[in-house]
Amino acid sequence: MNTLFEILPLLIPLLLIDIALAVAAVRHILRHPDYRFGNRSIWLVIVVVLLLFGPIIYFVFGKGENE
C-alpha cells in the first residue's frame, strides 16, 4: 500500500492525459464522418473500451487524412 502512495504523483498526470486524449478522440469521432478504416461505432468502442491505447490507435490509424 505504501508503494501505491509513492507512485501516485506519477499516475495522476498520466491518467489526466489519458482522459483528455479519450475526450478529444470521442469529440473528433462524433464530429467527423470520414475515417480511414471502419466506421463511427467501431471507433467509439475502441476508444472507450481500450481507454489507455484506444485514443492513440484512433489518431494514428482511424482519423481521416484530409482533416
Describe the protein in words.
By secondary structure, the chain is mostly helical. It has one domain. The chain is built from three helices and no strands. It has helices at residues 2-31, 40-49, 54-62. Helix 1 (2-31) packs antiparallel against helix 2 (40-49), helix 1 (2-31) packs parallel to helix 3 and helix 2 (40-49) packs antiparallel against helix 3 (54-62). The longest helix is centred in the N-terminal third of the chain and has 30 residues, at 2-31. The radius of gyration is 15 Å and the shape is elongated. The mean pLDDT is 88.
List the helices and strands and how they pair.
Blueprint: H1 2-31, H2 40-49, H3 54-62
Helix pairs in contact: 1-2, 1-3, 2-3
The share of residues in helices is over 70%
N- and C-termini, Cα separation: 46 Å
Run of helices and strands: HHH
Number of domains: 1
- Major sheet characteristics: none
Which oligomerization state do the chains in this entry correspond to?
single chain
Mean pLDDT: 88
Low-pLDDT stretches are none
Q: What is the general shape? A: elongated
Count every helix, treating DSSP H or I runs of 4 or more residues as helices. 3
Radius of gyration: 15 Å
- Structural class by sheet pairing and helices: mainly alpha
The count of β-strands is: 0
The fraction of residues in strands falls at: under 5%
